[in-house]
């Protein structure tokens, strides 16, 4: 539990406009509660697969993918450690009130020191959802 809390504290220090901000946490009786920014437009998968919603315009789609790429660049190259998210999918891309993309759900993320041997060789797969 101590190692997990240390990792949560590290992830809480991440700040970039395309990441869902961890606002705080509470640890009590072996349980851990994480508090994040509220994302009023929900997740990208709801926008893509909920047919009752208006389809995203091409401009919105471009801004969303650009936001995801910007968030990943920060995680991989611009922070004090390398953060490998390991679970990029539409349900982990959250949309703020202006429909800007923010990466969330760092539950599978791993932190590595800069210069970690063969980090570019690391390949991790996560099971996708068939549609």
From TrEMBL:
PROSITE patterns recorded: PROTEIN_KINASE_DOM, PROTEIN_KINASE_ST
InterPro entries: Kinase-like_dom_sf, L-type_Lectin-RKs, Prot_kinase_dom, Ser-Thr/Tyr_kinase_cat_dom, Ser/Thr_kinase_AS, Tyr_kinase_cat_dom
SMART domains on file: TyrKc
Lipid metabolism recorded as keyword: no
GO molecular function: ATP binding; carbohydrate binding; protein tyrosine kinase activity
GO biological process, one term: response to other organism
Sorted UniProt keywords: ATP-binding, Kinase, Lectin, Nucleotide-binding, Receptor, Transferase
A Pfam family of this chain: PK_Tyr_Ser-Thr
SUPFAM superfamilies the record matches: Protein kinase-like (PK-like)
Domain Protein kinase intervals: 1-131
This protein's record includes keyword Nucleotide-binding: yes
Protein name: L-type lectin-domain containing receptor kinase IV.2
Organism: Zea mays (Maize)
Gene encoding the protein: LECRK42_11
């Amino acid at each position: 539990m101590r190692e997990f809390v240390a990792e949560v504290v590290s992830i809480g220090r991440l700040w970039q406009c395309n990441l869902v901000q961890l606002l705080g946490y509470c640890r009590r009786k072996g349980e851990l509660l994480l508090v994040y920014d509220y994302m009023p437009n929900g997740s990208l998968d709801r926008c893509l697969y909920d047919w009752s919603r208006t389809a995203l315009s091409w401009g919105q789609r471009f801004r969303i993918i650009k936001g995801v790429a910007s968030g990943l660049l920060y995680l991989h190259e611009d922070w004090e450690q390398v953060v490998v998210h390991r679970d990029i999918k539409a349900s982990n891309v959250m949309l703020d009130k202006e429909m800007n993309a923010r990466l969330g759900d760092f539950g599978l993320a791993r932190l590595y020191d800069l210069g970690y041997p063969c980090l570019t060789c690391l390949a991790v797969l996560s099971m996708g959802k068939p549609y």
